Amino acid sequence: MAGWLSNHAEFLTAVLVVMAFFTIAAWETFAPNHPTRLGQSRRWVRSGSLYAIGLIASSLCFPIAASTVVDWAQLHRVGLFNNLQLPTALAVVLGVLLMDFGDYLTHRVMHAVPVLWRFHQVHHSDLDFDCATDLLHHPVEILVTGVLYFAQLLLWGLPYESVLVFALLGILAGPWQHGNLKLPAALQRVLQKVLVTPEMHRVHHSSVANDGNRNFSIIFPWWDRWFGTYARAPVDGWSTLRFGLVDRQNAGDVTFFRLLCEPLGVMPPLRFARQFFRK
Ligand SMILES: [Zn+2]
Ligand SMILES: [Zn+2]
Q: If you write DSSP's letter for every residue of 132-200 in order, what string do you get?
């Protein structure tokens, strides 16, 4: 089974990603939690294009599958789990928890280290919050998280089943936690004990800095609760919640070229052309 899944991993991943986005996008279209500010098609094209560049860059920089890294680590007994005799089920559960905790730490580092925040703030630049926001990542951030992902695989030496379950949960968590979904308050309260919900991640995308430094968890919410970064609601309440960065609240601040070029310290082409012809 693991072999068959490994051989068809890329195709199955692509199908699952499309299904997850399609389901959440349909759900938020028919029962949105809040109105959106910018045109949907423009946002999907902008965010999808940035994400596609990141994927292409990743496949060029790391032309290697996770399963290859897992096999190599097993063969050479690299990583903690490859040197322990744990039952597979226990290794899978512990592995998923460790990887999710690693992502929580990575996310906190992205906010805390200025050079990484330059790239991660692109994700926080979206003036709306829905499953298209999940795609809004600077290619450099996608590369950095790719390096950290492979580093975690080598550090822990996880079994393939563990990597598979984690990948599956990660694929579902992205569009789910960014979903513009209206869920009953009682259901949110129950779900937030075991899962990061859209409401919880909505706080993290607030334009208020104190909110942005809350709710870093990706799949399980326990890391925020245990490490003191959990917030049930925005500091100023839900009614005044605005998404994006406080100093980038206009549509012109968050175009494809500005989000791609500015973190690299490069002038966006339109502005460059304007300055060039003005001379
Ligand atoms: Zn963040
Ligand atoms: Zn997000």
A: GGGG---HHHHHHHHHHHHHHHHHHT--HHHHHHHHHHHHHHHHHHT--B---HHHHHHHTTTS--HHH
